[in-house]
Each structure stands twice: as C-alpha cells, then as structure tokens.
C-alpha cells in the first residue's frame, strides 16, 4: 500500500506564460515554488501525478545536520532553521518537531567514524556530540543491551513526509503559484539558445526559466535534451506502526534498524543500511561514474536483476513533444517493498528494543531514491542552456534539506545572493561535465 500524502487542490487554469516553470511536485519542487512566489516571481509547478506522490511522501522523515557530507552541512543548517518556521510560514502542518536524533554505535570503529565526522563538522559549531553508555541508557531506556557510544544531535528533528510538501504547495498557491497536477512536462523549448518555454501534456507554457526537480526522473528528462546527469536509483523499503505509547521521542538509527516517532503516535521503521540496487541499463552506462561509491557502499546494497531492467530498457530515451512522453505512462512510481528486508529490520529492532515486540505494522511501502556518484545533490544552472536549472539527485537525504534546497534554487534562478555557497552542488563537478550534444 502506498502512503497517501495530504491532497492539494490543483489550479484549474494552465497559464500561457509565467516567469518560471518548476518540473516536479516533491519537497524540492514545492519548496522552490514557494520561495520563488515569495520573491514575487510568477511560477507554475507541473507534477505528472500528485503532490509528493514519490520519494517525498515515502521517506523516513528525518531532518538532520549530523552525519552529512560536510558539503551539505551549510544547507542543512539553513534547512533546519527554515523547518522550524515552516508551520508559521505555510499556515499548515508539516509535522516538524525538533525532537533530536541518535545514531547508536555497535563498536569502537563506528565511534571512531563519528569522531572523524565531528572533526570535519567542528567548523560549523553544531551541537552534535558523542555520548557514552550512561547517557544512552538515560535517553533511550528499555534497550536490551548496553551501547558503547552514540552520536547525538538535540537540534535535529523530524517532519511528516505525507504532510510537508502538500503544506508547502498550498502555501505557494496562496502566494500566487499555479500548482498543476496530472500535468507531465514533456520537454523544454528554446529560442535563441535559451529556455523559452515548456510543453506539457495539457499544452505549452512560455517562461524565462525552468527548474527540473524531477527526482528519479531527472536523468531521463535531461538525457532527452542531451544533458548527462549521472543518477541511478536505489530501492528503500519502509513500514509504519499503529500508535505506540511510552517509546522514544528521538529518531534512532543503529547499524541494522531505524525508527522515528510519527505525529499520529505510530513509528516509521526500516532496516538501516539495507537497500536494493536494481541493475538497469543505466547501471552499465554509468558504471565508471559510480565505481568509487560502489566500492565503499557495496555492503549496504543488494544488487538485483529483475523486471526493472526490462521496464527501463523499454522506456524511450527521446520523444517528440507533440506526443505522450514516458512521464505520462507512470504517474507515480510505486515499487514493491522488499518484504525480507523489512522482516529482518523488524526482528533487529525487537531484539534491541523489546518494547516494540507488540507493535502492529499497518503499512509497508517502498520508494526509488535518486543517487548521484558522490551522494551530494545537483543544485545548479546548466551552463550550456541559459534558463535551465537542476535541483535533483538528493541521494536519499533530500527531505531534510528540502526547504534550504528550494530556497537556494530560487536564489539561483533570480540571481539573488544565494543562501549558501552553491559551488559544491554544481553539475560541472562530474566528469563528462557538459556533455550536451550539439543537437
Ligand atoms: C525510503 C526512503 C527513505 C528516505 N529517508 C529520508 C530521510 O529520512 N531524510 C531525508 O532527508 N531524506 C530521505 N529520503 C530522501 C528524500 O525522500 C528525497 O531526497 C526527497 O524526497 C527528494 O525530493 P524531490 O522533490 O527531489 O523528489 P520526489 O519527491 O521524488 O519528487 C519528484 C517529482 O517529480 C515528478 N516528475 C518527474 N518528472 C516529471 C515530469 N516530466 N513532469 C512532471 N512531473 C515530473 C514526479 O512525479 C515526482 O513527484 C528517503 C527516501 C526514501 C525513498
């Protein structure tokens, strides 16, 4: 069963012209649309399915600074600041609570790993710190074992994936943005070497700039324009429980399980560090780009050849803008979860926190995560095509930095002083940098 995000009332009219079209109605696209609308820019957000139908409603809901690549920390700091004010800003409920996050360590080598991360993060003066067994027992009573250490950040938190992007979309609409659902963008039109509009399944929209926030679809979209965005997909499986009383408020991750409390009183649970990497034609095309990251993360990945290979093989890579595109064929990516990974995750959790033994699992689902070779997103203009911007490749941790990423994208589009230095997120950092073909 797929999670059901809060419904958003779409706009009834397709505008003929706006300043900016945002492609994709996940946390990134909706946040971008909100910040653009707040700047007084006219914006249309086009979503092929419904708002937050894909990754943005299927994730764990963790909003964290800790454990991030140092390149992402400034954006994470700004995002946590924005999350704190997001209910007031949107007049809605995003579910954000600054409830703290704890990463439990199994052994000294995990403690050393977080010690090293703290060293890299010191310059940002976060409140993240290593804690010992006594403090862990105090913060997380009821574990069946004594943990040697943990990384703890009291100022990190959680939000509700099924509520946040819809609340942000509604706020963007209230500020004048057109929110168009069931409205796939087939491609971008250009004039005099720059963006001049998009063609949607409902008709064209003229615009000065396009932001592609298409999640797992962004590589296909870019490829159809001759732009190489290195991006693969990984399957994450998740489950949630009915309400449970007396269990931790903190979001907790250990080597082989993770849980966080939900606003409805239940818990979102998963097996941590256990994802399936479907082998698809792009796995071969991008083999050398992803080789270095595969070397370090292969233990967490279960490579699988399955029906996705054939499904992706059949997807056309180019199409004409006056006939249906692959985006209209799949309104919402809704893959099957891995039952064995979830069963194992549940067993791991109960073994370590026996109070979860009686939990009632009410829903299981999966999401396809879009990853880049360095697991850092691309938030960037595309130099070869003025007016075209990317905000994609959030590599399994884009929900927490969604608000900051949306703000940064809006700044890049309008040319305002960016909220953080955008250099680490540029598309050009990848090899085959600007491989936009002459076509
Ligand atoms: C199981 C799982 C757990 C995760 N846990 C966390 C977590 O705890 N914390 C965290 O920070 N992150 C987490 N993530 C990652 C996070 O969910 C994503 O990084 C984030 O949601 C990405 O948002 P997005 O807007 O880029 O993509 P999406 O939410 O996938 O949205 C992209 C949208 O674009 C639309 N689209 C694509 N192409 C077109 C087109 N041509 N026309 C119109 N619409 C189009 C799609 O339909 C889709 O709705 C997790 C992800 C998963 C799957």
Choose one word for the global shape.
globular
- Would you tell me the structural class of the helices and strands? alpha/beta
Number of helices: 14
Runs in which pLDDT lies below 50 for 5 or more consecutive residues are: 433-439
Oligomer: single chain
Largest beta-sheet characterization: 8 strands, mixed
| CA(first)-CA(last) distance | 42 Å
Provide a concise account of the structure shown.
The protein has 439 residues and is an alpha/beta fold. It is built from 14 helices and 21 strands.
3D structure, described in words:
- The chain is an alpha/beta fold and 439 residues long.
- 30% of the residues lie in helices and 23% in strands.
- The chain has an 8-stranded mixed beta sheet with strand order 5-6-4-14-15-16-13-19. Strands 8-2-1-12-21-20 form a 6-stranded mixed beta sheet, with helices on one face. A 3-stranded antiparallel beta sheet has the order 9-10-11.
- Helix 1 (27-38) runs parallel beside helix 7 (161-174) and helix 3 packs across helix 14.
- The N and C termini lie far apart (42 Å).
- The relative contact order is 0.20.
- Flavin-adenine dinucleotide binds next to helix 1, helix 2, strand 13 and strand 19.
